[in-house]
Description:
The protein is mostly helical. It contains 18 helices and no strands. The model is unreliable at 1-16 and 19-34 (pLDDT under 50).
Amino acid sequence: MIRSFRNSLTSQATLPDAEPDAVSVCVPALPVGGQVRALDGIRGLAIFFVMIYHMAPGFPGHGFSARFLTRLFSSGWFGVDLFFALSGFLITGILLDARGSADYFRSFYARRMLRIFPLYYLVLFLVFFVTPAFDSSLYQEARKDQAWFWLYLMNIPTALRNFPYRSMNHLWSLAVEEQFYLLWPALVLWTSPRGMVRLCWCLVAAAFCSRVLLTSGQHAPMLVAAYTFTPCRSDGLACGALAAASLRHASALNPPGLWQSRKLWLLLALAVGGVFCFSSDVTFFNPVIETIGISLLALFFGVSVGIAAVSHGRAATLLGCPPLALLGKYSYCMYIIHPAIYHLVSQGVASVSPRFPFLRGHAGEWASMAASLSTTMALAWMSWTCYESRWLSLKRYFPRSRTGKD
């Protein structure tokens, strides 16, 4: 099931481009100090499910474990919603903390550009200007439409043409976040705490209604558009933002502490589980999943991120464990490069499988996944150590303001 779906649509998930040190944000309204490692772990979980969704082969057999794992990994695209909620939470928290500062816009946009642009545009340069020297057929479709990529508008042709770019379709999600945050800092600055809560709920409702409108005709391009257009995906970002605003301004909610309620978390978890368990198709092309399912996921992940930010005890320790934190640290690069790595590794394994019979069939698919995961992790570590960290060091010239003003 996973294999057939992945062959038709490559890389439809997302990676949050929120600043890696954003998880260290601490505000008086949050009972935490220093770095919130649980949020690093959430990012690590999200990238894990995204990569498994794109790489894992199917599970043969008809037993319960095979069916469960197949269904779980087939729905691994929900990492997109977790990433959106986490990004909305972190960025909105940063903006709320900086309200009233003289360099509010300058600091925010400069720090985001230092985090996002260097790696992203390096990858585009390699794809559009270096790879043609070795194989002109690679990324041919993307090169024809490269202006969309340079301008962070690639979610538009991706939606209208049904994911046409091999190993580059996943970049649509970065466009969604960048488009959203063009206006979001101004809205945060000019909106009161209570107005921010109302605005977030309006975005949640508008996103749901827009997806219902686009999916009601059962037309495939519109199903993709409902999944990739920014207005249709703003509920995930808005739910994260709502959690951040609620934790800082509890009086803006009635009842206070709603987004920290474990009862609410459990209720949403049961609702999400019910939708996914009783749906015959757990991909986002299922209209039920793409409408109410995505809305429930946005709310569930928004609550989850809010709880994780203030959690203590075993849950916080588990989420903050070193393996998950490490995945979270390198997740941005891992997300950008993993589809291309998997494509190249799979081709390599397929080319040598005639000489190595043990690499044929299902075993070869698992070998491809293992090699792709390890290669992606190694390259992400190299990128962070040798390239990304050099750019991030320039953030010292744009210190983050923390006024604490409403």
